[in-house]
Amino acid sequence: MSVEIKLRNLQKIYPDGTAALGDVSLTCPASACTALVGPSGSGKSTILKIVAGLLDSTGGSVSFGDKDVTGLPPEKRNIGMVFQSYALFPNMTVRENVEFGLMVRGVAAKECQRRALQALESVQISALANRRIRQLSGGQQQRVALARAVVFQPDILLLDEPLSALDAKIRQELRAELAQLLHQFKITAIYVTHDQEEAMALGDQVVVMDHGKIMQVGAPLEIYTRPANDFVARFIGIANLFDVDVQLDSQKAQVQMGFGALSIAANEFRARWPAIASGPAKLLCRPQDAKIVEPAQAHTKLKVTDCLFLGDRIRVTGETENGKTLRMEAHNSSQVKAGDILPVAMDLASIHLIPSAI
Ligand SMILES: Nc1ncnc2c1ncn2[C@@H]1O[C@H](COP(=O)(O)OP(=O)(O)OP(=O)(O)O)[C@@H](O)[C@H]1O
Ligand SMILES: [Mg+2]
Description:
The protein is α+β, with helices and mostly antiparallel strands.
């Protein structure tokens, strides 16, 4: 049965004094995938190990549903785990690897076989059941590791960078498959990655971490379009961030960018950014939200400094009239080169404002 995971005020100070987790409180909804993302050392694996019971926290509690599991050993938590190094037995067959955990728990041989095959079918590799692990590709091994984790029908699945050992192309393919499998299993999953694209593709809920603290929790679209602070804006996707000055009165908000101004009706402004008042703020504009326009509609004349062909589109980097860097995207047929001056406008419906000092 799938359960909600609740972390309350988790703290971890390692014996050498390293403070790995500040004060982490988080709810991971039942039957959904929560993706933990953040730079190296931000505390992601520490959280996962505490949820698994492999590591004791130095403060706070962990509950599964209504049950406090804080002091419970790992084998009593009914958790499946998949790690970066799959820790499969290279000389055993695929089926033996998946059956192994059931056998040592004393499950009868016939039942082991039946459940192992069912798990292998669920990850679409039952045809490879009799191959040895060393005869498999990295992606196939990853599926065996997944089958081995779900063969116990765990309540919770914990995955720590399971795709990071694979090359970019297979990683992308497996990412989509994994997303499908997780939905199919309807299991409560926590997926750890330092790859923001992977987090957004796999997470129903994304948790952005930095230095042992949660920076933001939200749906992928929310995190991407409405980051709570500069850190999240820069970590997730590509961000143009400008220091701006807001003048808000009863009629309208004027956002002075230093290279032009935006005017937004006061009602709309308050509804979109209730926490922003008159004064300094930061404006976020994603590269796809800046466009080449007719000169009369432009917010700035952008002096192109660099142009990168990305296949389906081009990424243009340029300088605004007051010398700020702006990155934007244009169709791959656009004839743009370094030195060009382009009239550029931001899409008012897509920009976002972030409080200045957090
Ligand atoms: N056994 C340990 N003893 C002391 N410090 C540790 C130990 N394990 C981890 N740390 C420290 O705790 C912090 C968080 O580590 P953690 O492994 O949770 O990071 P992470 O977000 O998983 O990073 P990565 O993306 O590199 O895997 C880091 O500063 C790390 O150096
Ligand atoms: Mg880690």
